[in-house]
Write a sequence for this structure.
């Protein structure tokens, strides 16, 4: 008979939150934060401070919905709103997901180009590897690997200290809101919101909570995992900005390629900076590229009641299998378009995430305040104020970007 | 024919022709196969919800509106009755269990038909049509037209009320009719299939509605991985009640997988007899006869008559897993013999059973491997085999259904051995492992290239005057050709290893394998043929390869042939060792076998090729001198 020590009770619920949050620091995340630091120095740090509570609260809400209902986000949207709104929600999820998967393949291509391998070779191979990983791999163990690999980016924390930034300046930047009214800055702000609180992450987290069978009685523990995970992921994101701002910004390097971004790790790894960066980028991208299409596939099938599950064959679950295969293949195909700027692709994908974010959050807000669904676990006022605040700000930023683009300002 | 999604939102008009609201829902009475619509729910002007009796007030319904037969002020509103279900609120967009198809599906629309002035629910639409209609009716029409053009029909996928069961059991107060085929009326194996499709929390919720007997049967049918989780999630009292209902061997399996505290708590809540039976089984190792047996054997003593035994079966053995074999034991439970139910039924009631007893009983020991037990059952066509200890005392029986499960398990394990994936390493490890295994030859080939490049560097940088420079360069040229030929050898090694593996899986280890010499002789013949073929290919390759004039064609072909032969022999030898190890009960890794064979073969081939090049130049130089 197996004996389980009480500590394992905690470990049993740990995971979904930390994993989801660290999965957010993927190709798109790293490039967005790196560009933010390189281009604007410490200027955007205050945004990270501002967005962290929102991120923690959104993740907490997604987790709470899963624990209270035992259903995924997509199922709840369908049951609360019916077919038509669900269709649009799923379109948004697919767009967010596909864009991010494209970014992951861009990350793979960029990392492999640091090793001197052409993207024409690396991307098709990566697509096959990712596909096989999805078809044969199972969720829980992908998580473990992710967890292990996300630790690579702790290198940024060390690098930040070695680079000796002016900590006073860094501290002040966290609390001094500064905005430059040009399109790049606004787009990057949306990108930061989109990469920090990526829409697909809420689906992933909630379905993780549901799959682990975490119900309201375990939620008290799991909630800490979710919130600490979110905070930790954002801490690392802050250090990416601090490092790139300290190393690259004074040198006037605005990131044009993965090689530039890698130079931020030079204080730590010296000549091996590119190697370290490439390994981190590659593994994070491959795993995210496997998890993302799967998340979308599960969510869509859940919403429309189609057979899903990796143990189902193509004839049993054609739409499920077809969907993730399509996302993987088409995302990889996009990267093969000649002359594509990989860094730009990674940034744009995060801006798309940012633009779609408020709309999916609105669905979330309506569901989580519905007593018929959530019972007594509806939102508190603090949650509501912060979430609606986030939604308003991101919509306002998107509108501003739109107006500026149309009028040609900035 | 109406669809609920089309009905919702239509205006409700009273007898005076005044619009008094819009349809928000309709309720059905649940007591029939095609339930009648009994109530109309609508939202009044200020979004106030109202409910009306359909029978009393609804005059007509069409695609445009619902017309009432009374004026607004004469309407008497009603409330939702206990046996009523609201279609939009409780069914539309929800997950239901299709108890006929044994699947969990989502309701995309509900189809209602009008017959003799009554509206009846035909069924829930769960197919693509309902989704398209939900998007917009014109979308459905367009897609239907397109598919018809392609010669297909966009099918409607309806599930009738009597084949539905609801998952969200806020409706458990609803008394459903007898004609309604609920989840708990399905075969436990089918219930288990449905449960496995649900996320854990929902699984537990549905499970709560099964009674203890049904629950026990269902748990026994669940896959192992779900069993312990499900029991772990239940309250202690319920869990122990269910385990008590189960056959002790199945219950012991589950309890063995639970955390220690939980297991103890459950055992304490059980009846003394059941708990003792389970505890006694927990003492045996997994995967042995003791681990899979049930202690519930039907036993009698040999001084009884046939009639007495039959009476005993009717009273004392009701709960026993199987009564087809009745075991005759002495007072200390020492096994004397066995009678079959058939013998009993065919004999006169007054016959003493001593006359019927078959004393040549086939038995197994509690520590016997479960696979051997299963084989015994299959070999002697038994329905159950008794498990006895060294002193011959009857401990329990292993029944044929347990044997079938064992065989299923073992064949899955064999498959893992063959494909090189092992659940112990976890699926991700195994996916990489699988990739490595399937492309092991590719990896080794790549490694060989890397080693080659590493070696070539220093050689090309050798000073021009260095006497080793020339011979080494030719050796490298030979090695390049060998690298090109290498996949042939690698694949040969891999094929042979997997053949050994197949022998390992299929062959029975007792009848023995051929001796080393016989095996090598057998492999030798294959090897010579393979060597000849490889030699010829190498000859062709070396003469056709551009820019390799320096290469000695004949030596290369010879080296290739030799390396091929040796590869075959090595693979055979390793296979022999593997079979020996396996016969000795040790674990054998198929991948390890193949990789070892390939690594040896690669090293040998490349070194031989290199050496032959060097030697060839050396002899040439010696000849010139």
């Amino acid at each position: 008979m197996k004996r389980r020590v009480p500590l394992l009770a905690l470990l049993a619920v740990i995971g979904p939150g930390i994993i989801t949050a660290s999965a957010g620091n993927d190709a798109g995340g790293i490039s967005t934060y790196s560009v933010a630091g390189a281009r604007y120095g410490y200027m955007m740090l205050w945004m990270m401070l501002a967005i962290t509570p929102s991120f923690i609260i959104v993740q907490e809400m997604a987790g709470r919905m899963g624990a209270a209902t035992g259903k995924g986000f997509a199922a709840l949207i369908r049951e609360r709103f019916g077919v038509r709104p669900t269709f649009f929600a799923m379109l948004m999820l697919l767009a967010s997901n596909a864009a991010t998967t494209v970014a992951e393949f861009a990350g793979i291509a960029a990392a492999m180009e640091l090793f001197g391998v052409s993207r024409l070779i690396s991307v098709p191979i990566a697509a096959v590897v990712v596909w096989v990983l999805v078809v044969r791999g199972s969720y829980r163990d992908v998580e473990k690997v992710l967890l292990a690999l996300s630790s690579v980016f702790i290198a940024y924390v060390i690098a930040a200290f070695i680079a000796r930034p002016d900590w006073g300046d860094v501290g002040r930047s966290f609390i001094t809101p500064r905005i430059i009214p040009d399109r790049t800055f606004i787009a990057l702000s949306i990108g930061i919101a989109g990469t920090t609180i990526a829409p697909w992450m809420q689906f992933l987290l909630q379905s993780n909570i549901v799959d682990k069978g975490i119900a309201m009685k375990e939620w008290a523990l799991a909630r800490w995992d979710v919130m600490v995970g979110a905070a930790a992921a954002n801490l690392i994101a802050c250090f990416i900005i601090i490092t790139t701002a300290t190393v690259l910004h004074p040198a006037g390097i605005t990131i044009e390629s993965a090689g530039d971004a890698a130079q931020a790790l030079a204080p730590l790894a010296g000549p091996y900076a590119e190697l370290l960066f490439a390994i981190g980028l590659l593994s994070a991208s491959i795993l995210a590229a496997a998890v993302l299409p799967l998340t979308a596939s599960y969510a869509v099938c859940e919403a429309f009641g189609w057979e899903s599950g990796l143990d189902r064959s193509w004839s049993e679950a054609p739409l499920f299998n077809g969907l993730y295969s399509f996302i993987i293949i088409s995302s990889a195909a996009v990267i093969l378009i000649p002359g594509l700027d990989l860094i730009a692709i990674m940034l744009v994908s995060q801006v798309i995430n940012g633009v779609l974010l408020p709309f999916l959050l609105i669905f979330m807000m309506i569901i989580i305040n519905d007593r018929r669904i959530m019972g007594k676990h509806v939102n508190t006022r603090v949650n509501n104020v912060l979430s609606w605040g986030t939604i308003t700000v991101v919509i306002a930023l998107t509108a501003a970007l739109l107006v500026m683009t149309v009028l040609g300002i900035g | 024919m109406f669809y609920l999604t089309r009905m919702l939102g239509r205006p409700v008009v009273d007898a005076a022709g005044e619009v008094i609201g819009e349809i928000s829902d309709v309720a059905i009475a649940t007591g029939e196969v095609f339930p009648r619509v009994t109530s109309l729910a609508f939202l009044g002007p200020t979004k106030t919800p109202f409910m009306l009796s359909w029978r009393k007030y609804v005059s007509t319904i069409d695609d445009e509106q619902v017309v009432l037969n009374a004026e607004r002020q004469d309407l008497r509103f009603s409330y939702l009755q206990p046996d009523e279900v609201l279609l939009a609120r409780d069914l539309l967009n929800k997950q239901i269990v299709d108890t006929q198809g044994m699947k969990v599906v989502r309701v995309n629309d509900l189809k209602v038909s009008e017959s003799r002035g009554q509206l009846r629910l035909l069924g829930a639409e769960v197919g693509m049509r309902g989704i398209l209609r939900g998007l917009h009716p014109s979308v459905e029409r367009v897609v239907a037209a397109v598919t018809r053009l392609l010669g297909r029909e966009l099918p409607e996928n309806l599930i009738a009320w009597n084949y539905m069961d609801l998952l969200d059991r806020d409706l458990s107060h609803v008394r459903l009719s007898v004609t309604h085929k609920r989840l708990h009326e399905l075969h436990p194996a089918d219930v288990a299939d449905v449960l496995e499709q649900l996320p854990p929390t929902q699984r537990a919720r549905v499970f709560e509605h099964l009674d203890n007997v049904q629950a026990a049967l269902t748990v026994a049918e669940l896959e192992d991985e779900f069993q312990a989780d499900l029991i772990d999630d239940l309250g202690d009292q319920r869990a122990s009640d269910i385990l008590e209902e189960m056959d002790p061997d199945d219950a012991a399996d589950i309890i063995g997988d639970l955390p220690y505290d939980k297991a103890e708590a459950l055992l304490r809540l059980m009846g003394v007899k059941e708990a003792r039976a389970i505890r006694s089984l927990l003492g045996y190792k997994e995967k042995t006869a003791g681990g899979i047996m049930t202690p519930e054997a039907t036993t009698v003593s040999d001084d009884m008559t046939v009639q007495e035994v039959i009476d005993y079966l009717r009273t004392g053995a009701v709960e026993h897993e199987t009564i087809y074999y009745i075991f005759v034991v002495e007072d200390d439970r020492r096994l004397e013999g066995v009678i079959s139910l058939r013998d009993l039924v065919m004999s006169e009631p007054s016959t003493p059973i001593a006359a019927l007893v078959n004393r040549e009983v086939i038995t197994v020991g509690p520590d016997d491997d479960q696979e051997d037990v299963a084989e015994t059952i299959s070999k002697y066509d038994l329905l159950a085999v008794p498990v006895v200890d060294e002193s011959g005392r009857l401990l329990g029986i292993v029944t044929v259904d347990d044997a079938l499960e064992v065989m299923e398990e073992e064949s899955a394990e064999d498959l893992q051995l063959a494909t090189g994936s092992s659940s112990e390493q976890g699926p991700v490890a195994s996916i990489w492992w699988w990739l490595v295994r399937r492309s092991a030859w590719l990896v080794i080939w790549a490694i060989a290239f890397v080693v080659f490049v590493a070696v070539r560097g220093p050689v090309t940088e050798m000073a021009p005057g260095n006497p080793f420079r020339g011979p080494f360069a030719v050796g490298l040229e030979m090695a390049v050709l060998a690298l090109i030929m290498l996949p042939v050898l690698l694949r040969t090694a891999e094929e042979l290893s997997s053949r050994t593996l197949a022998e390992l899986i299929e062959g029975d280890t007792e009848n023995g394998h051929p001796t080393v010499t016989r095996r090598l002789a057998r492999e030798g013949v294959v090897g010579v043929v393979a060597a000849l073929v490889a030699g010829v290919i190498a000859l062709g390759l070396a003469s056709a390869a551009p820019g390799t004039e320096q290469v000695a064609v004949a030596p290369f072909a010879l080296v290739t042939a030799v390396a091929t032969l040796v590869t075959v022999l090595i693979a055979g030898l390793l296979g022999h060792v593997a079979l020996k190890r396996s016969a000795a009960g040790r674990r054998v890794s198929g991948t390890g076998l193949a990789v070892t064979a390939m690594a040896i073969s690669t090293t040998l081939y490349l070194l031989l090729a290199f050496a032959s090049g060097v030697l060839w130049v050396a002899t040439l130089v010696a000849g010139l001198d």
User: Anything to note?
Assistant: DSSP finds 24 helices and 19 strands in chain B. Chain B touches chain A at residues 5, 92-95, 103-108, 126, 130-131, 134-136, 197, 199-202, 204-205, 229, 233, 255-261, 263, 282, 426-431, 434-435 (CB under 8 Å). Chain B has a mean pLDDT of 79.
